């Protein structure tokens, strides 16, 4: 870190995390040069930087080539195959993520041994990290959920108050992370996502696999996802690091899994060769199921809980045991826009899963619905994904589909090919509220008592909304308005 004093460092991307990076670097005495595509973000920067520039990616790339920067800290939004990282590589400029900088600051701090427990995967990261933080908190530790969730990691590290960090890592962040050595690490699953950012599925998976590099104590993989098993087998971990699988079935030796209503460990306790130990029950997760019934728990919620428990138990923290796992899972509250029932009226449940921004996540949400009872609101920015496999998998659960999105062609083609008889209503492009109001009205017309209307778009939100959060908030407001109209005797159509 002393080497950063006086060093010429570029920071690309000046959002919340980028601004925190600039603050940290200027505090360390670096000469900071700030870049962003938005003039307002550049103008809002208050830190004393050497220079600032607003421009297109091509303009920023040209400026980097002409500079004598030795280091570039990049926002997760900077594409791996885009002009900025391409120019930096060609110019010999080392690139770090905010995660890399935060890790190096941690190692150079007064508390260098604070463990990081790292989670990536196509789906389930936020839920798993939230559960993990809750388990560690139940064990008496100050263990915030950070990274791709919550506060920037660098801010938490500089505050110096955490006993452990539950860190959600995207493939974007991992792409430019170099020396992270987590106490325990997991890739939950791998499915096609962000292929336009990475340049292809192989590059995407390779960046996900970086979570296991230098893992110290436990490398956690998904027994139902062969890609994650292969990642662990190929990972360059610290000697003695255990590979532990989580499974929805009964666990074999070296695994954590489910036996009827129990979550059972056969990997991380001394008597594992002869027996499993109970670490929690499905009743500890019942509050996360529709209607609060443990027998309606979605499979992916159970899988996320198993992963979180394995990460916590495998990190070697002395206060973390089965009691903390069970207490943490009971205390966990899901984040916004992740399978939340936002309204109920006329026998219909309205569920916000706006965070389902890829096909894999949408399938996990929809697959648990009873046959023919789902009204699916789908569509948006496809990020280069295809939807034939998704539609084929979820069609039996559906009554019909309401399509949103500026370009609905990819989803329409998949529906026509894989579910030709399924009713489909298309909502025209418009302002965000107009789109959601149209989707809610179309869904209400389609739904019957006993059905579930689910916003699980399988797509990003950027074509019509500022974020998946805006999309979900507007949906919740519109669904509640519809429910209130029904309760008042006004069907909302007058």
Which strand-content bin applies to the residues?
15-25%
As an assembly, this protein is single chain
- Helix count? 18
For the largest beta-sheet, the strand count, sense and barrel status come to: 9 strands, mixed
Coarse morphology: globular
Q: pLDDT below 50 for ≥5 consecutive residues: which ranges?
A: none
Number of strands: 20
Category by helix and strand content? alpha/beta
Question: What is the arithmetic mean of pLDDT?
Answer: 92
* Sequence of strands across the biggest β-sheet: 7-8-6-9-10-11-12-13-14
Query: What percent of the residues sit in helical stretches (DSSP H or I)?
Result: 25-40%
What's the gyration radius in Å?
23 Å
How far the N terminus sits from the C terminus, by CA atoms, comes to 66 Å
Would you summarize the structure shown here?
It is built from 18 helices and 20 strands.
Characterise this structure:
The protein has 494 residues and is an alpha/beta fold. It is 36% helix and 19% strand. It contains 18 helices and 20 strands. It has helices at residues 16-27, 39-44, 57-66, 83-90, 98-107, 125-138, 153-159, 171-175, 195-198, 201-209, 226-234, 299-314, 322-331, 359-366, 388-394, 409-418, 432-446, 468-487, and strands at residues 8-12, 31-36, 51-54, 71-74, 94-97, 116-120, 145-147, 165-168, 184-187, 218-222, 242-246, 255-259, 262-265, 277-281, 340-345, 348-352, 374-378, 398-403, 424-426, 452-455. The strands form three sheets. It has a nine-stranded mixed β-sheet, with helices on both faces. A six-stranded mixed β-sheet has the order 15-16-20-17-18-19, with helices on both faces. Strands 3-2-1-4-5 form a five-stranded parallel β-sheet, sandwiched between helices. α15 links the parallel β17 (374-378) and β18 (398-403). The relative contact order is 0.08. The model has no long low-confidence stretch (mean pLDDT 92).
